[in-house]
Design brief:
Chain C: It is a multi-pass membrane protein. The complex is a heterotrimer. Chain A has a two-stranded antiparallel sheet with strand order 1-2. By secondary structure, chain A is mainly alpha-helical. Helix content of chain B is about 75%, strand content about 0%. Chain C is mainly alpha-helical. Chain C has one domain: Orthogonal Bundle (Helix Hairpins), CATH 1.10.287.3510. In chain C, α1 runs antiparallel to α2 and α2 packs antiparallel against α3. The relative contact order of chain C is 0.12. The chains are: A mainly alpha, B mainly alpha, C mainly alpha. Chains in contact: A-B, A-C, B-C. Chains B and C meet through α1, α2, α3, α4 and α5 of B and α1, α2 and α3 of C.
């Protein structure tokens, strides 16, 4: 193979150039050209990524390649270069990001073609891809952090893309603030690493951990892992910082697909998978991660069942799936989590783009109560969306089936209770997905007559990415066919093996494994059937009791408002009234008043009489001479 | 008590007395006259210290040129004792006390200063030939620069002293 | 009592102090100006005495330069006073209190 890994800097360079072109010429650029430039930049990155991937996959690739561009920070013993690391993990993420990213760019070129801010949109999107690639490729935590902040910024910009609506900008701010809480955790973790190990480079850090990790005080390791995990909960929307992700659906739908489903939200998974050496030393943190992940999966799934906004359902589904990934990580199965990241990127991007196609056809309507029967008018969207639903629900032999079962099996190996609850969450997933599908594409149309007349299939630029993603959703799982079928090690594990080592996975008997698989699959299939039946004749009564609580998302936003926002506001009010107004303002104004008063008095000395000035001068001279003759000596 | 000592005490008394006359006389013209007398006394000191060149220059430049200029200006303004502004007694007293304090302070500070006999015998350092050599070798550059200073002072004096054409309204405002 | 450098030191100090007293006591700008000349001459006298004491001609050159500067100063200073007299018809420095405003 060629020497692609040395060219790795090209991968983030192309989107950066695309961003600069579109960003600097935003008022000169024709819309169609902006879409072409934006997509071409990502396509170029994708080509390089493909080359890198095959090079990494080839047998001759052993050690991770580190490409150092320049010294970023050089201060005393601290030496942080801007370096990229090419290995199995990063090359895989490269493919996901540039591949899915390219499809979504193509889709966006059509979806956003009527929007006046299209050039700006593509600039942001390219900047996002650039930041995400920086996050993935960084050879140390600092470069990852730069990318981490960059994607947060782009997420903010793109959620608030239609900034004329106040609620959208509020959603953007919410996402930014929530992310910031997590980022603080990441930053503190990074500083802890720096303080305890003196390096941020993965290679040195993990080498140190490998040799002396066991002798480190467990409290330090746990503290670092918890801090990193807090960072991950912010970026990857886990309890307690998940509430921003559903609100983030305010952004354009392709953005939801790219940032809030396929790539950015998986940054937390990537970070933990990257730091797996560290996490394997902290079983306590892993338990917390498993519990948080599972709780998030269940909570989000329950909320998703009662949502009526097509994108909100998908958003909660994303939160729930991210919970699954964290469950996998908590069970020590890092590769499985990455596997699910990949398959999830395919089918969730597919479904978001499908929903975008639906919204496009419905003229901006997002309420599934007003849809129905769209399948007749939008064949391609309908079929591809169904494939996505089947994949996420774990229909046998589709991609989601393999990754989800791998997670559940790993959870069982860790603790059977986790497995049971995981199956429950998976059943809910199947239920709400088919509720969504049936309400949207089956039955009869429930919207206005005008909307029905307007219904149409989306143009090819939008359907082709759907088809490609649908194909990937079907075949994407075959890199991870379970061992029970092949009697070989997981192909996916084999690929990631050199960089990511799973931790504490017990072998479970084959019979048990097959049984588990059957149970979860049958349960999911049953829920699919149940949902199909239940929503064939849809009715939307006013929800009561627990359903009302779920429709209002467990009142979590209100809860946060009551226990965090209000007290802070009250405290700020007190601080404003007493500390700010009386204390600080008092000091500042007091200084001003004192100076003014003193100046008024001192001003008396300035009589303007030259004679008086000379007099003062002579007295000063006398004083100075007295000092110098009789005191200093 | 040799002749030099007698001359020294005489010239000193004359210098101090006429200096007091400068500050005490009510009429500015008298002040100028006393000042000229002071300069003559100081020139006498220069001569007994064998600095003939400076003695002559002092008389020509100070007594001859500068003081005449003062006299011109005073007469131009027609100043005399009647229009002479006077400060209050207290302020005059304060002036005397602070000046005296300065004198005493420096005096006390300098009591321990090195004291050497002033050689009154003939030595030629103050002679014009010797000073001329030093002036045009070691101090040639400052000498040239001082000529530029003179020129600029002259131009400055002309520019400042020139009559301005001020409109009547503005003139009233300034006064 | 033979004449020593200390005598000249105290003499010039006395003349200098008289100059300062005059500056403080009088209100006439021309008299103040003259007192300044007196102080300059006191310093000149001391410089000559030291020149004699150390048998060095440099101090006398300094006196020469001081005279040059004094002459220039008087030229400009008197021009200023004449100007002032022309404007306010007085040489009383107490009238010049515009610095206050």
């Amino acid at each position: 193979m060629g020497n692609f890994s040395q060219l790795v800097y090209l991968v983030p360079l192309f989107p950066l150039v695309g961003f600069l072109i579109n960003g600097l010429l935003w008022n000169k650029m024709p819309k169609s050209l902006a879409g072409i430039i934006g997509s071409a930049a990502i396509l170029a990155s994708f080509c390089v990524s493909l080359g890198i991937f095959f090079e990494v996959k080839s047998a001759s690739f052993h050690e991770p390649v580190i490409v150092t561009l320049f010294d970023f920070i050089q201060s005393g013993k601290l030496h942080i270069p801007l370096a990229f690391q090419v290995d199995q993990l990063s090359s895989l993420f490269l493919l996901i990001i540039t591949g899915v990213g390219f499809l979504i760019h193509v889709y966006s070129a059509s979806y956003m073609s009527h929007d006046e801010g299209m050039v700006k949109y593509f600039a942001y999107l390219n900047l996002f891809v650039f930041s995400m690639l920086l996050l993935i490729l960084g050879a140390n935590y600092l470069v990852m952090f730069i990318g981490w902040e960059g994607v947060g910024l782009c997420s903010y910009l793109l959620i608030g893309f239609w900034f004329k609506k106040r609620e959208y900008t509020n959603a953007a701010k919410k996402a930014f603030v929530m992310n910031r809480i997590g980022d603080l955790g990441f930053l503190v973790g990074m500083l802890l690493v720096l303080y305890n190990f003196g390096t941020l480079s993965y290679k040195e850090f993990f080498a140190t951990l490998g040799t002396s990790g066991a002798t480190m005080p467990p409290a330090t390791i746990t503290a670092i892992t918890i801090c990193f995990f807090i960072g991950a909960t912010g970026k990857s929307a886990q309890i307690p910082l998940y509430t921003w992700l559903p609100d983030a659906m305010a952004g354009p739908t392709p953005v939801s697909a790219l940032i809030h489903a396929a790539t950015m939200v998986t940054a937390g998974i990537y970070m933990i998978a990257r730091s797996h050496v560290l996490y394997s030393l902290a079983p306590f943190t892993l338990n917390i991660i498993a519990i948080v992940g599972l709780a998030t999966a269940l909570l989000a799934a329950t909320i998703a069942i009662f949502q009526y906004d097509i994108k909100k359902v998908l958003a909660y589904s994303t939160v729930s799936q991210l919970g699954f990934m964290f469950l996998a990580i908590g069970s020590g199965a890092y590769t499985i989590a990455v596997f699910h990241v990949m398959t999830h990127a395919f089918f969730k991007a597919l479904m978001f783009l499908g929903s975008g196609s639906v919204i496009h056809a419905m003229g901006g309507e997002q309420d599934i109560r007003k849809m129905g029967g769209l399948g007749k008018k939008m064949k391609i969207t309908s079929v591809t969306f169904l494939i996505g639903c089947l994949a996420i629900s774990g229909f046998p032999l589709l991609s989601g089936f393999f990754s989800k079962d791998a997670i559940l099996t790993a959870a069982y190996a860790h603790n059977p209770i986790l497995y049971a609850l995981g199956v429950l969450a998976a059943m809910m997933t199947a239920f709400y997905m088919f509720r969504l599908y049936v309400l949207t594409f089956r039955g009869t149309f429930r919207g206005t007559h005008e909307q029905e007349h307007h219904l149409h299939e989306s143009p090819a630029a939008m359907t082709i990415p759907l088809i490609v993603l649908a194909i990937l959703s079907v075949i994407g799982g075959y890199v991870g066919i379970p061992e029970v079928f092949t009697h070989k090690e997981l192909a996916f594990n084999e690929y990631l093996g050199p960089v990511v080592k799973n931790f504490g996975i017990h072998e479970i008997p084959e019979n048990t494994e097959i049984m588990l698989m059957t149970v979860s699959t049958l349960a999911s299939l049953a829920m699919m059937y149940f949902a199909m039946m239940k929503f064939r004749k849809p009715a939307f009564p006013e929800s009561t009791g627990i359903a009302k609580v779920l429709e209002n998302k467990w009142y979590v936003d209100e809860l946060y408002d009551a226990i965090i926002v209000r007290p802070i506001e009250a405290m700020s009010g007190v601080l404003d009234r007493f500390v700010e107004k009386m204390g600080i303002d008092g000091i500042v104004n007091g200084v001003g008043k004192t100076v003014k008063w003193g100046g008024d008095r001192l001003r008396m000395l300035q009589t303007g009489q030259v004679g008086f000035y000379i007099f003062i001068m002579v007295i000063g001279m006398v004083a100075l001479f007295t000092l110098s003759f009789f005191w200093i000596r | 008590m040799d002749i030099y000592s007698i001359l020294f005490w005489f010239l000193s008394a004359m210098a101090v007395g006429s200096a007091l006359g400068v500050i005490l006389s009510r009429n500015p013209v008298n002040s100028v006259m006393f000042l000229i007398l002071t300069f003559f006394a100081i020139s006498g000191h220069y001569i007994i210290m064998n600095a003939q060149f400076l003695a002559v220059v002092n008389i020509i430049v100070y007594a001859g040129a500068i003081m005449v200029l003062f006299l011109f200006v005073i007469m131009l303004m027609n100043l005399n004792a009647d229009v002479e502004p006077q400060k209050g007694m207290m302020i005059q007293l304060a002036g005397v006390i602070s000046g005296g304090t300065l004198f005493l302070v420096i005096l006390m500070g300098l009591t321990t200063a090195k004291s050497e006999l002033i050689d009154t015998k003939s030595s030629d350092i103050g002679l014009i030939s010797n000073l001329g050599k030093v002036l045009f070798t070691k101090f040639a550059l400052p000498f040239e620069i001082s000529s530029v200073l003179f020129l600029s002072a002259m131009i400055g004096a002309v520019v400042i002293g020139k009559k301005e054409h001020i409109p009547a309204s503005e003139k009233a405002e300034i006064v | 009592m033979p004449v020593s450098s200390t005598h000249y030191l105290f003499l010039s100090l006395l003349l200098f102090s008289i100059g300062i007293m005059g500056t403080l006591m009088r209100r006439n700008a021309i008299i103040i100006f003259m007192c300044i000349e007196l102080m300059l001459n006191a310093v000149n006298l001391l410089l000559v005495a030291f020149s004699k004491m150390y048998a060095d001609a440099d101090a006398q050159i300094f006196v020469f330069f001081i005279m040059v500067v004094a002459a220039a100063e008087v030229a400009v200073g008197l021009a200023v006073i004449v100007m002032m007299y022309r404007k306010v018809h007085s040489v009383d420095i107490n009238i010049l209190n515009r610095l206050k405003h």
